[in-house]
Amino acid sequence: MRRPRRPAQDLRFTVDCLPRRTRVAMLEGIRENSIIVGAYTDRDGGVCPMLAAHRCGGRTDLASFARAWDRYTHAGSKARQATPRELLTLSSMLEASLEHDDSVRDEFAAAVAELEAAKARRATEVSVVEPFDEDAATPELARDTGERDRSRELQLRPGWSWLRVFRRYDEYEAALERVRAAEHTVEERELDRELDDRELERV
Question: Where are the beta strands (DSSP E) in the chain?
Fold first, then answer.
């Protein structure tokens, strides 16, 4: 079961929930007005913190603040002047809440700037294409695999390489026709070679 917050914790939480404009206006209002407890206003011109904020431009109605303020100050049925300690506590909470907002805003701005700088660095790295230096290649990339270019040796041997991938069937058919023609040419050359060999044997 969750413990209920203490009056000071409840007031601090409620202060943090106020809009920033209201907090700024309330901080100004409690410094310029006579602040009371237990009523919205009194006959002597005293006002509650929320009315003081309204007078300074922070027009926000938040009943939870009034309840938290009354609970913290132990407000009774009659209005009274807020004590210096109560006013110091409220003003300290307002100032701390505003400073926290400023620090969060600064951290967010710094994070955005760092992200933009990282994007700019990546864009620069991608745009600069370094030419490949065979001598500067790593030993692993420059290592001799033992393979050699046999295209000249195998160019007349049918089926020595794979066909490339075709997206259209007519292109595939045309490639097959070229392969068949090449095979037929090779067969004719081999047949001519055999006939020449036989003629030589007869001679």
Answer: 36-37, 80-81
